[in-house]
Fold:
Amino acid sequence: MTADFAPRVLLVDDEPILNEILSAVLKASGFVCRCAGDGFEALRLLRETPPDILISDLRMPNMSGFELLAIIRRRFPQIAVIVISGEFIVNVETSGLLMNAFYQKGHYEPQELIATMRELYSQCPMR
Structure:
């Protein structure tokens, strides 16, 4: 990762404090982060500047994470997707390829997430 091409991340969660904390951790690790409170806001931000990686919750008001991921996979298949959820436990292998990685809220270390993000970014098409 270089300063000219820092990985862009879009965080989507209806809990502002979670977006704020995770955004701070990721920025300290060299990522450029934007946050959305629901799927509709995420889609608006995606149209402005698509991220390299999207991190989303699954249970949100207005548009669930499942609905958002279905749209992203159809319209933006090049975006790597990580799901972090406390209510749903998902097997990535059987999720219908809606996500590249899954973490259960409260059951992962930030270093694990960052390592996964760097691996996914290394596989992204060049900008």
User: Anything to note?
Assistant: The mean pLDDT is 88. The two ends are 12 Å apart (CA to CA).
